[in-house]
Design goal:
Length: 226
Amino acid sequence: MESNFKQIVREAFFYLFPSFCIVCNMPVETCYSFRLCKRCRQELLYVRDWEVAEFEKKLPNVDAFLSVFLYAGTFKKLLWLYKEKGMRQVANLFYEHVLNLILSSGFLYPVVSVPSRPARIKKRGFCHTGLLADRLNGYFRYKPGISLVFSDKATNIVSQKELSAEERRKAVEGRFAASAEAVYCEESVILLDDVCTTGSTLNECASVLKTSGVRRVVALTLAIEL
Ligand SMILES: [Zn+2]
């Protein structure tokens, strides 16, 4: 009886306040904290431990590697909405997953994000990795003593999508630098980026951090692209 009543109230609620999936725009029937329908949730693919271990081999400059999703299906669409459409609410879902991963990994270090190109930040209105890093640092009440910036010396900035692994490695050389406003050097940091494909960006950023004195760099990406 009670469950019937609850069912009626629930249906009336969704009738009065319909909610739609932010990815496919279909009605969302259940009370999730984030508007994603059941089908899109099922297409959110998580990485398996052995896939992360395989990727770690591409990252000689980092001490450990963590990742959440596979760059496919719903994740790909969510990242597009976040990066290209500036839909900040997507950060809530990413934040939840990354925070849980950090807490379960035990690597409770300040988070340093891989910076986006200044022109992209200007267009989008925010740095998509920086926004997440700020929220994570806020949770732990960290104020990282070091951060990364796009280097003034970085000229010839080309999209990495069409490049081979070796071309990517060369393309990111000298692209990042430790911020001139760095207050002090952290002993250990989490280096946060959106997607890891060849690992060239993470290796380069880890190298810059280590040259600046950071001893331990744990790379964490939202996704890996197989
Ligand atoms: Zn959907």
